[in-house]
Amino acid sequence: MIEVEDLHKRYGAVRAVNGVSFRAENGKVTGLLGPNGAGKTTTLRMLSSLIRPDAGRSLIDGIDVARDRHAALARLGILPDSRGLYPRLTAREHLHYFGSLHGIDRRALERRVDELIELLDMPQIIDRPVAGFSQGERTKVAIGRALVHDPPNVVLDEATNGLDVMSTRAMRSVIRELCSRGRCVLFSSHVMQEVSELCDHIVVFAGGRVVADGSPDTLRRDTGEANLEEAFVKVIGSTVGLS
Amino acid sequence: MIRAVFHKELVDHCRDRRSMLGALVLPVLGPLVLVGLFRLLSQLGGDPPIQLPVVGAEHAPRLVEYLKASGAELLPAPPSPEESVRRGDVDAVLVIAPDYGERFALGRSAPVQLIVDQSRSEAARTARRVTRLVYGYAQSLGALRLLARGISPEVATPIELEELDLSTPQKLAANLLNVVPMLLMLAAFMGGMNVAIDTTAGERERGSLEPLLLNPVPRYRLVLGKWLTTVVFSTVITLVTLVGLSLTVRFLPLEEVGLKVLLGPAEALSMLASVLPLTLFASALQMLIATFARSFKEAQTYLSLFNLLPMAPSMVLMLEPTRTAAWMLPIPALAQVSTLVDVMRGESVPVWHFGLIMLSSLAYTALCLWLLVRLLGREQIIFGRS
User: Fold this and answer.
1) From the list A88, A97, A102, which residue is nearest B216 (CB)?
2) pLDDT at B164
């Protein structure tokens, strides 16, 4: 479970994140939806310890990220905004590298890599250097790398960005699979369809704040709009930056 | 986990053509530069071989052998030596007396005469060279005789005069000495340069720094793993360059340009003791500088300029040769160049010099690595500044 409590972050005069709180439950897909620049990525970076918040805190399964960074990270699998790979290494070597950074022993790692090959459907590419990979294949490696320690909490920042239809579908099925295994999945996107398709719980961001928080049904009911898209437009106040 | 990082970076960079090529430049180029300079020197300076007519060569076969081995070209004597010298047909004539062998065997001074006309400067010059050769031979024989009687040859040489000729070819030749440390400095800095950039600025530019920092690993371990890889590259390249230079020096006929350079296995080991601490520091410093750069290219620009700095001490020492002083030892590059020149001159370098070099290098390295760890905790560094 991921809990974010009253996070603040400002850059000079810009309040990038201005009092954000939400909770992502286990066994559910929680979506962070908002236009570009709404503070989603900054929030995710704060809850993954790379940015120190000005105020507020993030808890991963009850562990305060600021207090015990390593314990929190061990329970988090993160696909961050930048997901660069090492072009000269194979997909398998990427998984091994990150696995050994998590302190997983050799044999357990081999088993885990086999599971990931199946989960992400990448038996054809696992032993190829990633230099020639397509965007979808690269994302698979990046996700595999984030999941190598089988984390109970998974954070995906714009996971389907730049993917073609097939890769997007594959990604969705991976997310559903994780969710059905009881993982807590936090998924950020500026694509409305993506979020409405996948998420059990939606947190809507605008201007560094949470402007709506609830299940798709609650959102529709609260805004009085039958269509989810209209509901989003209503809570955000404009369509700028949404697609 | 340091091992995991080290192992990954090592594999990664052994597959990287840019790292390997960049690293191989000096081991190949270094010896070539040395040979080239030497060629240049021997064309510029270097006296022509002595042409020396000898009378009575048959009386002293050993001496004749020695003269030939030292590069003198021995000619048959003209019918009237004194007349030839006076006329200027030949510069000098060496006359070995018939009783040379007899007196020599008795352990007495064996007479040898050099006919020369000192008023002719060219002839005088040749005569000086012959004199030096003959005395050199006599001295080594004398030393042997003393040794045979259990006396140290040094007893008979209360003063040893060493001539440092500053005429152009010799000065150039002496500078050849400074090229070797300079090339080694370059090797230490260039060997790991690409790795230093790729593991810092490159890591961020390709967007893999953020995922890497999201592992539950203390940043110092990541830094140490990357640093060790850079050190391995820098060290291996320095080693290979040193071996290359050592072999080159061995096969170059340096005596011909009047140069005494010691660069055998023992000297190479002393040089390593001086240079290896530098590879530790150079690697850490280069990573630190590259971390500040916004991109791989920018880091490359910074470091190519920066890598010229360690050549400065060589330049200074070339213009103004000085002996190693204690204050030089904590100054990276200057300490190395200075001790390397000492070693090649055959002077013994006190062990505490190496100790001080090692300690100061370790201190600088620790400082750089500490700063690097701090930097990797800063948002502007992780996400780049724009």
Assistant:
1) A102
2) 65
